[in-house]
Amino acid sequence: MGTRWRNRIVAFLMALVFVCALSGSFYFILNLDRFNQESYFETEEFQQELAQYANYLITSELGTLSEESVKEKIHVSMEEIEEHRYKYGSLDAQLDNIRYQYEERLQLAEDGEISEQPEEIVAERNEKLDDIQKNFSSDEHVEKKIRAEKEKIVEAYFEDESNFPPISSLLSDELLYFFEQNGESYTNTDAQINSKEQLFNENNMQYVTNYTIHGDRYFHSYNWPYEDWLYQALAEVKGDFNGKIGVPLELSSDSLLMTFKTNYEENRIWFWRLGISSLIVSLLWFITMLKIVSLPKQAGKWQKLYKKIPVDLRIAALGLTTFLLLFSLMWAHDCINQLTYSLSTAWATEFIISILVAACLSLLTYYQIRYLIATMRNMSDFKEAWTRSVLLRVLRFCKKVYKKLFLIVKDAFLNTTTGIQVFVLLTIVFGLGLGFFMIFIDIAFFLLYFLFAVFIGVPTFILLVKSVGNFNKISIKTEEMALGKLGDPLEVKGNSILAKMAANLNILNQGVKVSLNEQAKSERLKTELITNVSHDLRTPLTSIITYTELLKKNDLTAEDRSAYLEIIDRKSQRLKGLIEDLFEVSKMASGNIELVKERVDLNQLLQQALAEYDNSLKESNLQFRVANPDKPLYAMVDGQKMWRVFDNLIGNIVKYSLENSRVYIQVQQLGDKAKITFKNVSKYELNDQSEELYERFKRGDTSRNTEGSGLGLAIAKSIIDLHEGSLDIETDGDLFKVIICLRVVE
Prior knowledge:
- It contains 24 helices and 11 strands.
- It is of the alpha+beta class.
- The two termini are 104 Å apart.
- The relative contact order is 0.05.
């Protein structure tokens, strides 16, 4: 127990030494400018007293000030003339204003209702009108009026004794001065002008300085109730004084100035001793602490408790104790500063208290730093401790709250109009509730509350009830649609958000109906697709099986066997073509196909496709009319795939065109597009279902007696889509038209 108390006493004494040394060092650093001057006369304190003495001289001793001298310095600028001239508006405006002012008086005088004569009023009015006209015609007239106004201000200034407050100086009886202005001298010595230099020399003076007192110093210490021109005039009248101010050698030692000087010199010696000794003691203290202080290897009881405190609270506590320590040190510094001026028991007691408080705070700060370093020896410990800090928890909580509030407000203003309406509604409701309680505070609010409730509250209530009714209708309608009951559309009134919701719900209702129709159509087309695929694949396959069975007979002639093999070969090729077309259209639909684009002349490509069908065209009784431009029409396309498009379209024309009809093929350039049109008359009824012709295995020949896979148009459209072009089909009765648009290049 004795060892523990001895360690505590040693720690407190070390802290006391540290605080005393640090306090002295603070005092030394903060007052270095004050005591760094070799002479008291070079200090800021003496220069301030000298400035006060100069104020005393300019107000009480130097120069004279009179009304006439200030009036002579009055100046009137052109800006002031213009400002006075247009103070009440333009010339016409001022004249009209004067006439209007006298119009009623003149009428009353003419009616005999007042004692004044009309002639007198007219003369007075005309005099003012003439004065205003002179204001705009003569600068001298305006200048005279402004000067007269300023002279009245000067007279008022000199009549007010508060403008001439007495100025005193502590050193007025201890300093000597000699100033000159315009050949006139001012001094408080008996010396003649020719002995001024002899008087103000090192043999007679402790301190001499050349000094200039400017005229504006006369009013710098006062408030500024007047305009700047008056103070400028006062400064000009006073003028500047150049001369010397000195401190005589024969000044008695008990004078105030010599007392100040003696105290400064004594305090300066004490200051340097205190400062140097404090710095030395601080340095020795730090060296000692570095040698004897080390961090504990095992955590003690207090250190374990300290570790449980969140790291940010530890840092905050350290900052608070550090701030209080600095405050106590500054307190001690102020006490030392006061003791340098006068030795006082009260200040000495306060200094001892401040030192003891600072010692306790420094000890507390030391242990906090020690425990903080011991619990966080590296950055990983600090990061781990920071994850459990109060500040981080608060920031996380605030972040969550902010995100929730932000999302709530954001959702409320997804529709700006609705958000504003809700907030206006809440404001009205809050206002009605607040107004109700205001009635109990002051009955005078009752009428205001009644008007607010009738003209704002009641319409708001009706609107709210109506909106709730519309909302309920929309809710019921959505439940019916969820159950598959489409029913009749909702009634839409107004332009509110609920009305828009009802309109959108009607559109959705109609869309569901259309979707159901499309779904039924899709199911029908799917069934047709399966039927058509089955039919088109089964037909050649059946022929192959049939003729294969016939070939198994032994009694066949060579001629029949050859004929059967030819039929099997033809049907096999047809079946192969059907399967290849089916695979190709599937690949194109999935986008799993590569295009080898190159610069191709569409005119030439079309001519090559037509040339492939030259024999078929000659054998048919169709008349082809091809119109294309004379110049080449280039596009970046896959020539092989584009030839397939033309081949499919021309093949369809040959198969499905009405006998003895004309076929029109036109190629033209429209801007940056190439438009290729194929027109023919179908020998099968189209039924105006051009969109269904894109479907796979869909044919114009519904009986499916003609050769073909039914995939030609589907393949052609897929190829054009891959080239970022368009293929459109139009039907008009039996007229069948295909329009292809592709982007051309130069």
